Amino acid sequence: MFAGRLIRYLVESGLLPQLQFGFQKGKSTANAIIAALKYIAENIKNDEKVAAAFDCVNHEILLTKLCKYGVDVEDRALEWIASFLTGRSQYVSLSHSNT
Question: Is pTM, for the whole model, over 0.70?
Answer without folding.
Answer: no
